[in-house]
Amino acid sequence: MNDNEKLLLEHFKKELELSIELLSLLTEEEGALSQQDIQHIPSITSNKNNLILKFLNLKSIRQKKLSNIGLPRNEPQIGHWIKQQQLPELHQIWENLLQTLRKCQHINLINGKMIQQLTLANRAALQLLVGKDPTQSIYGPGSEVANTSKFNIRG
Question: Model-level pTM greater than 0.85?
């Protein structure tokens, strides 16, 4: 294994570790959302944002490393290059990284749908509280909150 291959292998290991951590956090977020554990969600979101920033930084570093050694920078091309190498460990790390990122993407999509459903339910509850038909929007055309002073608050 040459120095460039070692460098990439170590870098992909770091990305894989971070992606596994992100997958764990997204799974935790999924559990909190399904349990409607509102108290836990802000800390998960903060941690998720930090991990994503770290991951984006690592990806940027990877692209610089790839450019410096004359390799393609995008995932399909680097994946093709990796397949051409006779390095089973590099193949395995790359495949694990891609698989973990696909799982992250899938769980994040599910979490986004749950958040959307919870948001819609909260909006409907808010409309009931202000005495308005929950099938009507409390937001105006510019997404501003409608004037609720004209609504009767139920107590």
Answer: no
